[in-house]
Amino acid sequence: MKKLKTLIKRVRGWSLKKKIFYGILLVILVFAGIKIFTPPDNSKNIITDTVKRLDLKATVLATGQVVSATDLDLSFQQSGIVRTLKVKVGDKVVAGQVLATLDQSNELAALTQARGTVAAARAKYEKILAGSSNEEIELAKVALANAKNDYERVKSQQKTLVANAYKNLLNSTPEATPVTPADNYTAPTISGSYNLDKEGDIFISTYSTGGGEKFNLAGLLDGSGTVSTTAAQPVGNSGLYIKFPTSSAITAWKISLPNLAAADYITNLNAYHSALRTEEQALGGAEAMIDQRNAELALKQASARPADIEAAQADILGAQGILEAAAANLEHTILRAPESGTITKIEIKLGELAQALAKIMVLEDVNNLYLEANINEVNIKEIKIGAPIDLTFDALGPEIFLQGKVLEIEPSSSLVGGVVNYKITGSVEGEVKLLPGMTANMTILASEKKNVLAVPARAVIIGHDGGKIIRLVTEREKKTYEEVPIQTGLEADGGLVEILSGALQEGDEVVLAIKK
């Protein structure tokens, strides 16, 4: 009390200016203290909401399509003209029912022939078991004799053909050329047909005698003759003739057989080689036929051996294989229903050409439908098999709701518009009439939690340490708050998030946003 009285006395003793100065200073200090120690009023700048206890759901939205459990594009396995159409659009069919057929004339003929082959193979088998008759043995001997006669006939025929080809080769446009190469000469004219069947050169030398011009022959043959410029003279016994030019300084000539420079030499040479090959092939075929006939005779003369019986049995199996192949080819001309269902599309007419493996019909089971949808890789991890689905259909209108559930999630992905997607299938429950191809709007329940603390997701922010925090309002009127660390759970529809832990209770007010 004494100190206060002393302070008052001192103040009374101050000058007016000093009193004004310290009075203003005191007011400033009081105002600063109020600002510092009085909580701020943030009520106009802060948007808040309350912590609630709610039932949360997280859903995935998708657009799917109604698909038939049986959805088959049907086609023939081979091309052909459509001969019968046994169904029309809307017909219900059962598995194995014939829907259409192609022209079967060739396949039926092949099937009949295959059946004959099987019958023949079985008859042969029975015959081997019974053994050959004397008449069959005699017929085999006659067949062998005929094969030998054919061989001799072919041999003679081919020998003649080869000889003629060789003769044509030797007669490849014969001509006389100077023994000593020369320019600007007129060659003798060679005619006739060479018949000595020998290759080589015929040399002709001319000389003068008291009786006129003569010539001598050397090389392939010997002889002489008279030089004539008007009449062709025989060149020995070669079959060729020579007529000399009216004047020539050349006295030594040569006829090469064959003439390698002749225009027809290559053609005649090829023809000769072809005749040799033909002769070899023809004789080989004739010899093979003799061997075959010998083997057949030996077989008929022998008793049935185990190897023969096994071979006959193998022939039966081979024939049965041909029969089965023919039956399969016939089946390729028949279009059958692989499953029971309804014909929903026909894309062919009677008399048209059906291309192999081209779609001509669509078979669907319109009474057994399900849904297919693509879910992107971000959401697929949230979906589980058995998850319920809320459904609406564009074709039925938004007021009709159906239920379903997830049946399957394919493990392999596909790219749709450059985005990785996974296909899911879902069921449809209800009696509403649906058709394949209808668009389904799907709301898939990914997760659900009952009676949990929840706040709007935008109330949760990241703190300075990287953890999640929420700004809890501590003074409701002035909206003062403190930062509280939390842990979140389910991120639900409606922008809500579950609070797993933290100093929050139902009814607490939290900051959503602060206006600047």
Automatic annotation (TrEMBL):
Keywords: Coiled coil, Membrane, Transmembrane, Transmembrane helix
Localization per Swiss-Prot or TrEMBL: Cell envelope
Pfam family, one: BSH_CzcB
Primary localization class, coarse: other
Taxonomy, superkingdom: Bacteria
GO CC terms in record: cell envelope; membrane
Domain CzcB-like barrel-sandwich hybrid, chain residue ranges per copy: 79-364
Keyword Coiled coil attached: yes
Gene3D superfamilies hit by this protein: 2.40.30.170, 2.40.420.20, 2.40.50.100, Helix hairpin bin (1.10.287.470)
Residue ranges crossing the lipid bilayer per the database entry: 20-38
GO terms for MF: transmembrane transporter activity
InterPro entries: BSH_CzcB-like (IPR058647), RND_pump_MFP (IPR006143), UPF0194_transport (IPR050465)
PANTHER family membership: BLL5650 PROTEIN, EFFLUX SYSTEM COMPONENT YKNX-RELATED
Family the UniProt entry places it in: Belongs to the membrane fusion protein (MFP) (TC 8.A.1) family.
Protein name: CzcB-like barrel-sandwich hybrid domain-containing protein
Originating organism: Candidatus Nomurabacteria bacterium RIFCSPLOWO2_12_FULL_46_14
